[in-house]
Amino acid sequence: MKALVVSNCATSSYVHGLKSLFPDWEVRGAMSDLAEQWVTSDPPRAGFVQYTQDCDFYIGFPPEGTRYGQLLSKRSRCVVIPPFWFRGLQPDCFGLNGFVSALGGGNLYSRIVVASFQTGLTAARTCELFNSKTYEAFDLLSCYDREKQELVDRYRPYGIDLSDSFERWLARGNFLYSYNHPRIDVLMEILRRALAAAGIIRMSEFDLDTDMGVVDELKESIVWPIYPEIARLHCLDGSLIWRQGRVHDYRTLDLEQFVDASFQELNAKPLPEVAELPAWRAALAGCLGEAC
Amino acid sequence: MFSALYGNVYTVRQLVQLFDRAFGCLTPIDVAWRRDDGRYVDPFRPYVFRDGFLTIEHVENARRVHLDAVRHVFMDSSVFIFTLGLTESWRSAVDGAVFPVAPGVVSEEIRTADYEFHNFTYAEVLADLDDFISRLRSVNPAIRVILTVSPVPLIATYTAEHVLVATSHSKAILRAVCGEVDTKCDFVHYFPSYEIISGHFNKGAYYADNLRSVTREGVEHVMAIFRQTYFGASEDGPAEISIPTPKPVVSEPICDEEEIVRSIGFD
Fold first, then answer.
1. pTM summary value
2. Measured between beta carbons, which residues in chain A are less than 8 angstroms from residue B258?
3. How many beta-carbon pairs below 8 A join chains A and B?
């Protein structure tokens, strides 16, 4: 059997998870943007095109509307796994298009920092904003259940029921390195639930809470902290220490270093249009009015 | 009458198992039932071939063709229509395979101890329909689904309830499940043929004298509404099904490219 995985940063984990479940299968994978690029380039990447046409199983993002999805044979089975992101524990974090994160790669920024920067506050004043009053103004303290429901609803149409999974994940501690990088056992549970929903495997309770022997590659990437006031709500250890990834020697940044580095990047060029920014600035203004 | 000679698929569990049998994920131990006249039938569609088969091998050959057709239906259709009929069922006590009839009805030779009655609950029917839709979309991601509920009341019940009570119980579960799935899946649509036929407003006019069978007028009314709903007001209008296609999901955050393995096996 030939399987193709097309997903985001979880691609490699899903590939290795499938190899663990089906040692006899040939499993290959590509991140979705790369897959699309390979198909639309001139000439297209022949090896990828051929494999996509030949594969027996497609596992990953919904293929509708993609060029690589059009290559899939009618006989190939499609197991859809929507992208993972959950902002319930790191709700301040978001992707800022066109800017490199202070963490050295990717585009993750703090809403509070960006709103503060655009309001004209100094880096030092911005650091003082990291407290429960600001978090409340930004609705960071009470969004867990809403974000959880959003994630559950995103997966449910594909037969992946995660409604009872959060408590188990939390019971083993923080299950997120950043809001789109979950721990490996979370990804493996999602993979197996998706395969079970498609009738390819059968699941039992023994299949839960295990990494299936797959290396947790996302562990090597950045770590966005769960702020202490938010962590306490979920009986987790919180901090204000950010960590860069392996290629940056896992360097850590305290709050001051993180805000300084973010400001440096934000100073370099104009901010793009961020739909939520006016609301964040309003939240910040209300907060400043109360002398946070 | 049937796109793949299914016979009657009354319960959602039957539908899930039909999918699994078609894709090789389920091989029930009941291969063929020997009727009292010595002929063999497929336990999962015992009335499709009135004359039955001479040998078990013939049953198996016919089933291979049937399941091949089922696979094509699931993989190639743009719209799949399913009518939920019953919650009451008979199943194998050994492997859980669900049948469209009580085995004893087909043959007196069948060991009744190997089978059991089961009345599916709301939670079971909902889980089964979720499972089926996931499976269906796994082989046909763009497919859309129309659900209906059979307006035909039970002729008998194996529960201890009166058949009228059993009918209401069954229909309520099936109708509620359809509503739940219609609400949460934008590619699933419930079509109210059940309400059109059984609604009190037509004073039973769409039921035949036996108070079970639906009259030709009832069927024509349902089909007229069906055409208006999905094919536009004109009888010969464009055949464009108007169930919304789900929006593709997009991801916002970008990861550190240096940290993340971006492809495997395509070096």
1. 0.62
2. 105, 245, 247
3. 160
pLDDT in 10s for each residue of chain A, 292 residues: 999 999 999 999 999 999 999 999 999 999 999 999 999 998 999 999 999 999 999 999 999 889 999 999 888 899 999 999 999 999 999 988 888 899 988 889 999 999 999 888 999 999 999 999 999 989 999 899 999 999 999 998 888 999 989 988 988 899 999 999 999 999 999 999 999 988 898 877 667 778 888 999 999 999 999 999 999 998 899 999 999 998 889 999 999 999 999 999 999 888 877 888 888 888 888 877 654 4
Residues pairing with B149 in the sheet: B84
Same domain membership, residue A39 and residue A137: no
Per the structure block, which two tokens stand in for A136? 């409340």
Which of A80, A104, A119 lies at the terminal end of a domain, its last residue?
A80
**Is-contact A11 A29, C-beta < 8 A?**
yes
CA distance B90 to B26: 17
Question: Quick one: A150 and A263 in the same domain?
Answer: yes
Tell me the domains of chain B and their CATH numbers.
12-263 (3.40.50)
Domain count, chain A: 2
Give the nearest chain B residue to A38 (CA atoms).
B266
What is the helix (H) or strand (E) element at residue B264, kind and residue range? strand B263-264
Same domain, A70 and A95: no
What's the one-letter identity of residue A34?
L
Q: With an 8 Å Cβ cutoff, are B260 and A31 in contact? A: yes
Q: In chain A, positions 184-243, which contact chain B (CB-CB < 8 Å)?
A: 197-200, 217-218, 220-222
